[in-house]
Amino acid sequence: MNPTELSTALAMLRDAAPLVHNITNQVVANLTANALLAIGASPAMVQAEEEVEEFVVQAAALVVNIGTLLAPQRRAMHLAARHAGQAGIPWVLDPVAAGATAFRRETAQDLLALRPAVLRGNGSEILALAGEDGGGKGVDSGAATGRAVAAARAVARREGVVVAVTGAIDHVTDGTRMVTVGNGHPLLTRVTGTGCTATALIGAFLGAGLPPLTAAVAGLATLGVAAEQAAGAAAGPASFQVALLDRLHGLDGATLAARARLG
Amino acid sequence: MNPTELSTALAMLRDAAPLVHNITNQVVANLTANALLAIGASPAMVQAEEEVEEFVVQAAALVVNIGTLLAPQRRAMHLAARHAGQAGIPWVLDPVAAGATAFRRETAQDLLALRPAVLRGNGSEILALAGEDGGGKGVDSGAATGRAVAAARAVARREGVVVAVTGAIDHVTDGTRMVTVGNGHPLLTRVTGTGCTATALIGAFLGAGLPPLTAAVAGLATLGVAAEQAAGAAAGPASFQVALLDRLHGLDGATLAARARLG
Amino acid sequence: MNPTELSTALAMLRDAAPLVHNITNQVVANLTANALLAIGASPAMVQAEEEVEEFVVQAAALVVNIGTLLAPQRRAMHLAARHAGQAGIPWVLDPVAAGATAFRRETAQDLLALRPAVLRGNGSEILALAGEDGGGKGVDSGAATGRAVAAARAVARREGVVVAVTGAIDHVTDGTRMVTVGNGHPLLTRVTGTGCTATALIGAFLGAGLPPLTAAVAGLATLGVAAEQAAGAAAGPASFQVALLDRLHGLDGATLAARARLG
Q1: Which end of chain A is more exposed for a tag (fewer CB within 10 A), N or C?
Q2: Cα C94 vs. chain centroid, distance in angstroms?
Q3: Host H or E run for residue C243
Q4: Cα C187 to Cα C227: distance, rounded to the nearest angstrom
Q5: B137 pLDDT tier (thresholds 50, 70, 90)
């Protein structure tokens, strides 16, 4: 992918200021809303079963994140995702800790069957959705990355979705093409919800009308470049998070295109 | 209103350190609690149907915010608001996105019928509660402000409550009098929950024993002046939010009275 | 307790990077997760009745906090705590506002009967769990502290748990021994969730395999020393909170041992 596509994508996002409907977890709801505002989108957190179908059709994109899943929220996610699909509204799924419990595994599989435009997870989560063991501590991480990337490709083909598996290097695939994003910073792993932020940014790019593969790469590159800029000024993880949001807000397309490391 | 009333109000708030009971949304719960602590109040977030009636009578004021409404929380809000009214405890209603779905419209109308001391919303929300179309994109914003101010006056008269409609200029009315607050900063629109923060600050002033119109103006002026001070030091929306809370904490009555732009 | 035990404890925590399962309140969920990441633990927020038993046995420790309690969450807390006890996984209880309502009092008593390794609360909360009146405003705070410390010792003996009662000086007791921690800063009282953060840090030290009394003292001393360091650079409560997390991340064992004021 040509990095200039990223600056075009960012300009489209800021021009559209898309309304992004989030059904997400209570740990990251504030950070997600602020990240969406910072990049130029318009976030809404609406999660009641009674209203998600009526609301989602007003949105440009939907973000579904199972982080602090509860049964009523699970029903709301299903209703919203199904309705989004019927209405042609793109959505992105974040299957947080999908392999940790049966409740999460079943919920993530149920949602994946509703065909999000993009599925974004870490290696363990994508392996779980591919039906493989996510691996515990002690697994060689190089081998784990290779397995997760293969799993991402398999899930992308099987489900007909774009899969983004994030880590030190992010991999995005539609089952055929594979794009890597080499941006980011280790401090991203010391702040909660940065993976969820990546998912929400992908949702914002989907809401701006970008195709799923481009939206996923743009979301990951945007976060990664902003993180690199933020790390320079940070005294630790909390000042890093503040700077990260400030940098998302201040990021311009030329800088994004110049600093993105796509492969 | 004389700006010196604002410094008196702030002194009363800090002297009383009122316990403010919040039933609010998960996006802003942390920010709301920190804003209340910063200004000198004592926040509590208590939302179970089983306990809100027992708790609210211990509080000096109640804040009800429907941002991430769920059905059990809706019942708790109704119980708490009704009980507060019976006990003479003032409360403030924030009808987040009241016009977006039937669930929100009905909840907001149901709560408004319980007569909060103050109703605070943006133009679209106040228009929805007045029974008018909130208007979508493309509506001329000058005309929209005029319509929202007229709707605020109509709702204030019809319901016997003070209505605050916030925007670039805030308007506060009891149906007869109209006070404007001209403070604030555009960065307030790039941080989630600043409207909810305004509502909570109004709750704190109500809890300090101020009459509703004064409490509403004081809450909005306090936030607006602190925002103007915070914007100078901010590198973006997240450092602005940090500075905003620091400034709320450090704000003194003389500065508030000198910088408030009331009309 | 010898302060060098604290540096050993911190080294053990960072070496273990324990998975800490939290069932906590929506006000502090983000801060709790970030504090756990900052100190070197691995947080997870999992709260559905359907999955807490399956999840908790994968964790090294459990943190239960009743701050924004709801009935389904109460059932999940009970299931998780009981299962943790059966599996030998240590857990810590934070009985937020235990004395404020019958719902909280009963929930806290029910959980306490499941025997956490550590109970951490402020004076009012510990008095409520001892069956005494927590005292309202106007109670002499010196006398209140003395009563709370006596109540802590009584609860520790009666329930067979370590009790930490926090305030200007923290007191930690197993019913026989009593250790005081004299670190901290007044700004801790102007940020929401710092008590909850203390509880979570105790959970992290429990997860690293430390005995309950040591874990409680280590958690409180760690937070107190980081707070003292953070206060120097803070312009108010919000920049203090950012600096607090940065300092938790940067804290080294030698500094912790040198600055801890144990008695």
Answers
A1: C
A2: 6
A3: helix C237-250
A4: 8
A5: very low
Q: Does C236 contact chain B (CB < 8 Å)?
A: yes
CB contact under 8 A, A46 and B239: no
**CA atoms of C236 and B248, how far apart (whole Å):** 9
pLDDT single digits (tens) A133-167: 765 443 445 667 889 999 999 999 999 999 999 99
pTM higher than 0.90 for the full model? yes
The token duo for C128 is 């409520």
- pLDDT average, residue stretch A21-47: 97
Q: How far is CA A254 from the centre of its chain?
A: 23
| Subunit partners of chain A (3 or more CB pairs within 8 A) | B, C
pLDDT-based confidence at residue A86 (cuts at 50, 70, 90) = very high
Token pair belonging to B196? 């909810």
Q: Residue B203 annotated as binding?
A: no
The yes/no answer on whether domain B4-259 falls in CATH 3.40.1190.20 is: yes
Residue A153 falls in which region: left (phi positive, over 0), alpha (psi -120 to 50) or beta:
alpha
Length of chain C: 263
Give dist(CA C133, CA C126) in Å, integer: 10
CB C68 within 8 A of CB C27: yes
Q: Which of A45, A49, A245 sits opposite B236 (nearest CB)?
A: A245
Q: How many CA atoms lie within 13 A of B244 on its CB side?
A: 31
> For chain C, what percent of residues have pLDDT higher than 90?
94
The CA-to-CA distance between both ends of chain A, in Å, stands at 8
